[in-house]
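The following record pairs a protein chain with its ligand, uridine-diphosphate-N-acetylglucosamine.
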Amino acid sequence: MKKTVLVSGGAGFIGSHVTVELIQAGYEVVVADNMSNCDLTCFEGVKKITGRDDIPFEKTDFCDAAAADALFAKYPIDAVIHFAAFKAVGESVAKPVMYYKNNLGSFLNVLEAAGAHGCHNVLFSSSATVYGEPDVVPVTERSPRKPATSPYGATKQMCEDILRDTVRATAGTPGEIKGILLRYFNPIGAHPSALIGELPRGVPNNLVPFITQTAIGKRECLSIFGNDYPTPDGTCQRDYIDIVDLAKAHVCAVARMMDGKMTEGCEVYNIGTGRPVSVLELVNAFQKVNGLKLNYRFAPRREGDVTAIWADPSLANKVLGWKAGRSVEDTLAAAWAWEKHLAGK
Ligand code: UD1
């Protein structure tokens, strides 16, 4: 029988790409989302890409414990991938209570409902933000977690700890929970079909949506935040990971959990390419691969940005059998195709 995976926050950017890859790998997927930060565009795209019109969709707010419980009662869920969370760093600084309440509350309810309904596998969507400003790059999973620089980052660290504690407490009991923490670096791009991608509301905080919106004419000019960092070209360096590559890592992790291959109750993996790319390099690559000129200027540093961070992904490469495959150029071409698709071009 096919295994069923619940994807919380499954209508969003990462959740929709993960849903596609899970379905294509032969899993049944239940998509649940409270639609607080997205519409049905990506879910409709997922149905088109997979040719599946019958993917169960539930409008569920995981902060509602009864609703979370009802979902686990309704479907035979073998594993849950938890994405449902707020993710804007700046907003979290302005509205910490909202962030702690939403990001912690929803995850606690998922864990409680999973435990109550015999779902033993929990994958949590974490972030490289847990490493803060690293002393040494690339970072491995053993690099220290630094104090969070925003409430958003703090919720990622706290949810990691909550899952670890739950795994420890339930080990060997009938309600045993196994956990995998995937720490994403900077997910960018879109599905090659251009039917799903990133759909930020309002002014984008993240670099690539700002670039594509500037290129299409929705924004006048990209501000590159800081060109006086101690990096080769003075702009920050990140590990930009293609969204489809990232989605495939979830399939590998879910398979490892369900096939009983885990060697620890809670495993953690960096999901990145291992390749640092500066903001300027990314902008230049975007211009080159898409044959256009981008209007940009240098602006002061953005508060809270780290200088440089990229992954050592060798653990995921070895243990999960996963490796990032797409080039930055292909990824940026896909991001541009998606922006044009949105504009009806
Ligand atoms: C942030 C979060 C990360 C989160 C990710 C996705 C931190 C420290 N980082 O990553 O946890 O998972 O967003 O939401 O919590 N930039 C510009 N101009 C722009 C926008 C960005 O120059 O208009 C630069 C930034 O200064 C940075 C790089 O582009 O150097 C990437 O920024 P962004 O896409 O926002 O991601 P992060 O801040 O790395």
